[in-house]
Design goal:
Elements (H helix, E strand, L loop, with lengths): L1 E8 L5 E6 L2 H9 L12 E9 L2 H11 L2 H10 L1 H6 L1
Antiparallel strand pairs: 1-2, 1-3
């Protein structure tokens, strides 16, 4: 399985969108500061993920979610989460 995931920084108002084949390990790497782009925003929490059978599908979904249209979809998809926190 391949996962497209969204992390939210607990210290600042940042989201990170990525994909991986090992979700648990990847989140640990983000929280240990092993990713240069996410290190300044530690700690991270997983707020959403989708599973795909194919790596190309997961990569395409990640790319889409990073667009302005994809971000609008996320805000609609996670409406209760974003507006009740």
């Amino acid at each position: 399985m391949f996962y497209t995931y969204i992390l939210e920084s607990e210290s600042k108002e940042n989201l990170y969108i990525g994909y991986t084949n090992n979700l648990k390990k990847r989140i640990e790497e983000h929280n240990l500061g092993k990713n240069k782009s996410t290190k300044p925003y530690i700690p991270w929490k997983l707020i959403y993920y989708e599973a795909c059978l194919n790596v190309e599908d997961a990569r395409r979904r990640e790319k889409y979610l990073k667009t302005s249209q994809g971000r609008r979809l996320l805000k609609r998809r996670l409406k209760e989460y974003f507006f009740k926190n």
